[in-house]
DNA sequence: CAGCCTTTGAAGTTT
DNA sequence: AAACTTCAAAGGCTG
């Protein structure tokens, strides 16, 4: 794995991540017996990024950026084209259900022996109706779609693309069956046993079972599957979703349900190309159902908290496979939508948070603002007792820089806390040491949205219900003597 | 019914 | 360049 040994020295700021990772108490043993070092994973992380960006011929990124100028127009065109295609190709094939192909085998040229580790490392990415996985979406791709190059792609796509053997067009790279999915062997078919079984993937079943009968899927009729989820090449892709709202809404209401003739016949909506999933998102997708089953939770917010903890509890190899998957996701996404930019989707979700933050006069803001507020020297003074110049840890906790110190070491009084003089606590930094899990306390918890100042005047009902759910989940766990980690960080 | 919650990571924008 | 913001998924919940 060239990335691991690249030694590029590019940490990509993984330090914070690694710190928090390292501080996961239940990781200690794993860390010791792990062949990877933290540095290794950091290198891997950075290399995963680097490869897709630097390894591609010079210009994948540049091309993408270069296209930004004309991007809007292009995208409009592109989407119009999609719409057109959709109209043309709407043979009614896709309308019943999303033509998802849940499993994809990922031979990995970047990993010794073609995999990150034994069988368990061969991750099959599952994508069901509400979000077919981009990689899985490759399954329906016939070679025609990529050879020599998709119509929408620059002819030199392969050159600007990933630095890989040229034979490594996507179909080859992902071991697509010759002749496309139409001739896909049963073993790779819908709901069939994936070639790369996941040792602990508990969600495949639920996801699969939740899918409509395979007979309703135009599994292999890719030429007829053009629609809102279709790429202009005719390649179905989960990243393309109609802009009619959330994807999940769309999936539930359109793809997942057998009857939407009326809706479907309405105005052809311009599909939205969604961001490729990152490693954690892939992990969540895979493990969600398992957590739901184990913890008898349904609320995603609670589940995500658990998953976040479990993510940190993963070994480096385990995480690495998701980073690798995510890297491939990005590569594929980039190949499919060379002109796409994450910016395209900016502003599509409205942010009330932004409004909240704007009127929050107690927000210490950036370390720079924080220092300014305390009259500290921007260059030489530390913001807060954390002694970090980059980011005040107290700010991360959502509070003020209590007792910031100036360069001469003198303490500076902090302004009043936003809420009753009590700065919000970082969930990972309990006010009193928890004897149960002191080692879980990260020295420098990774910045997280929840750490930003929040208006806590009154517990939200959602929080209450969340807590209730979590508690009931924990009770359930205790009751059944499960050893699943369904506990959540004590928050607020 | 849009948006929130909640997580991490990638990639965007702002300072 | 660092800091900050937005969006990916998910589904229950809220206003």
UniProtKB/TrEMBL annotation:
**One CC-aspect GO term:** chromatin
| BP GO annotations | canonical Wnt signaling pathway; cell proliferation in dorsal spinal cord; endothelial cell fate specification; heart development; midbrain development; positive regulation of cell population proliferation; rostrocaudal neural tube patterning
List the SUPFAM superfamilies.
HMG-box (SSF47095)
Q: Where is the composition biased (Gly residues)?
A: 1-11
Q: Which stretches are tagged as biased composition: Polar residues?
A: 47-59
Name the predominant localization. nucleus
What sequence ranges are listed for the domain HMG box? Answer: 273-341
List the Pfam families. CTNNB1_binding (PF08347), HMG_box (PF00505)
Q: Where is the composition biased (Pro residues)?
A: 424-436
GO MF, one example: DNA-binding transcription factor activity, RNA polymerase II-specific
DNA-binding region in chain numbering:
273-341
For the region Disordered, give the residue spans: 1-91, 341-371, 404-466
The listed locations are:
Nucleus
Which ranges are annotated Basic and acidic residues under compositional bias? 19-43, 67-90
What keywords are assigned to this protein? Activator, DNA-binding, Nucleus, Repressor, Transcription, Transcription regulation, Wnt signaling pathway
Identify its protein family: Belongs to the TCF/LEF family.
Q: This protein is called what? A: Transcription factor 7
Species the sequence originates in: Oncorhynchus kisutch
């Amino acid at each position: 794995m060239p990335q691991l040994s690249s030694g590029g020295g590019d940490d990509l700021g993984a330090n914070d991540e690694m710190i928090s990772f390292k501080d996961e108490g239940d990781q200690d043993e794993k860390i010791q017996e792990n062949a990877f070092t933290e540095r290794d994973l950091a290198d891997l992380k950075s290399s995963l990024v680097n490869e897709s960006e630097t390894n591609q011929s010079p210009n994948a990124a540049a091309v993408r950026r270069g296209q930004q100028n004309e991007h809007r127009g292009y995208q409009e065109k592109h989407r119009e084209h999609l719409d057109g295609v959709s109209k043309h190709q709407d043979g009614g094939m896709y309308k019943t259900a999303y033509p998802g192909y849940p499993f994809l085998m990922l031979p990995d040229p970047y990993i010794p022996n073609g995999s990150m580790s034994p069988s368990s490392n061969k991750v099959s990415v599952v994508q069901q109706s509400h979000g077919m996985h981009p990689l899985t979406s490759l399954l329906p791709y016939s070679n025609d779609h990529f050879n020599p190059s998709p119509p929408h792609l620059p002819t030199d796509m392969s050159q600007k693309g990933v630095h890989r053997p040229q034979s490594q067009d996507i179909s080859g790279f992902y071991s697509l069956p010759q002749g496309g999915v139409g001739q896909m062997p049963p073993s790779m078919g819908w709901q069939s046993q994936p070639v790369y079984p996941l040792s602990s993937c508990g969600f495949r079943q639920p996801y699969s079972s939740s899918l409509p009968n395979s007979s309703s899927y135009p599994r292999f009729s890719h030429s007829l599957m053009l629609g809102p989820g279709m790429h202009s090449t005719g390649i179905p892709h989960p990243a393309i979703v109609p802009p009619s709202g959330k994807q999940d809404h769309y999936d539930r209401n359109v793809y997942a349900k057998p009857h939407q003739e009326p809706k479907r016949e309405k105005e052809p909506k311009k599909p939205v190309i969604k961001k490729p999933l990152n490693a954690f998102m892939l992990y969540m997708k895979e493990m969600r159902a398992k957590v739901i089953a184990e913890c008898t939770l349904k609320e995603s917010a609670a589940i995500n908290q658990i998953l976040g903890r479990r993510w940190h509890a993963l070994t480096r190899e385990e995480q690495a496979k998701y980073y690798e998957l995510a890297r491939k996701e990005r590569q594929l996404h980039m190949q499919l939508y060379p002109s796409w930019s994450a910016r395209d989707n900016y502003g599509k979700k409205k942010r009330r948070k932004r409004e909240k933050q704007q009127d929050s006069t107690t927000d210490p803001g950036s370390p720079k603002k924080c220092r300014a507020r305390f009259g500290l020297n921007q260059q030489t003074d530390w913001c807060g007792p954390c002694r970090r110049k980059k980011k005040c840890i107290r700010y991360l906790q959502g509070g003020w820089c209590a007792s910031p110190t100036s360069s001469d070491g003198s303490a500076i009084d902090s302004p009043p806390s936003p809420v009753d003089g009590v700065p919000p606590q970082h969930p990972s930094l309990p006010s009193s040491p928890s004897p149960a899990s002191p080692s879980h306390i990260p020295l420098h918890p990774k910045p997280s949205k929840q750490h930003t100042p929040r208006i806590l005047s009154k517990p939200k009902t959602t929080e209450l219900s969340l807590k209730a759910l979590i508690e009931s989940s924990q009770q359930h766990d205790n009751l059944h003597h499960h050893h699943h980690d369904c506990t959540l960080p004590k928050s607020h």
